[in-house]
Structures are given as C-alpha cells and as structure tokens.
Design a protein that fits this description.
With about 60 residues, this protein is mainly beta. The protein has a domain at about 5-45. The protein has strands spanning about 5-10, 15-20, 35-40. It has a three-stranded antiparallel sheet with strand order 2-1-3, with no helix packed on it. The protein starts with a strand and ends in a 24-residue tail after the last strand. The relative contact order is 0.23.
Length: about 60
C-alpha cells in the first residue's frame, strides 16, 4: 500500500498519508486542514529491475 510523505505549504508540517489510486487530490494537512501541500520525494521500500536486482533474486539464508 502506498504511503506518501507531504509538506504543508501553509503551516510547514511534514506528514505521511496512506493514499490509494484516485484519492491523491483529497489529501489535506492534518494540522491546519490546508490543501496547499507538496508531495515529498522519498525512497521506495522495494527492490526492482530499475536498480538492478529483484528481491526474489536475493540470496536466501538457511539456518
């Protein structure tokens, strides 16, 4: 599930929000309820072909 990071341009609060497809226009600042927000660039939590390897290709460790 996509969790995005935002900055409020009005009160400067930084916050995270779980946002599903089509709901991105409905995000408001939890502090001041402003819709004047900017999505922050953040790192992903997965590995994929774009960075050269896939998590399913990672070596497995057995005990």
């Amino acid at each position: 599930m996509p969790i995005f990071e935002y900055n409020c341009n009005h009160c400067k609060k930084e916050f995270e929000r779980l946002v599903f497809a089509g709901e991105e226009g409905n995000v408001l600042c939890p502090e001041c309820t402003s819709a004047d927000i900017t999505k922050k660039m953040s790192a992903t939590s997965f590995m994929g072909a774009s960075i050269g390897t896939c998590a399913s290709d990672a070596p497995r460790q057995f005990s």
